[in-house]
Amino acid sequence: MVTIEINEQTKAGKALLAAARIMAQTNEGIEINMENSVLIAKMKRNHQKQNLSETKKAKFLEKLQNEI
């Protein structure tokens, strides 16, 4: 098993994650696990700031719904 940490905010990170998701859907042996600790940390950080733009808030909520 190999663990790769991807910054989802960068173009390269988004592209790599999208490619990995496509490969996971079409091939056995590839599994993507989003760590809950990363998501929880983002939630806490964003809750403390209280300054998310509407687009960032919408993307965050969409991602959260996809995780559930």
How many structural domains does the protein architecture include?
A: 2
Helix percent band: 55-70%
Q: Structural class of the helix and strand makeup?
A: mainly alpha
* SS strand fraction: under 5%
How many separate helices? 3
What is the average per-residue confidence, as pLDDT, rounded to a whole number? 78
Structure description:
The chain is an all-alpha fold. It has helices at residues 11-26, 36-49, 54-67. The relative contact order is 0.09. The protein is 65% helix and 0% strand. The protein has two domains: 1-33, no CATH class; 34-68. The chain starts with 10 loop residues before the first helix and ends with a helix. The model has no long low-confidence stretch (mean pLDDT 78).
Task: Throw out a few tags for this protein.
single chain; about 65% helix; about 0% strand; about 70 residues; mainly alpha; 3 helices
What's the SSE blueprint?
Layout: H1 11-26, H2 36-49, H3 54-67
Concise description?
The chain is mainly alpha-helical and 68 residues long. The chain has 2 domains: 1-33, no CATH class; 34-68.
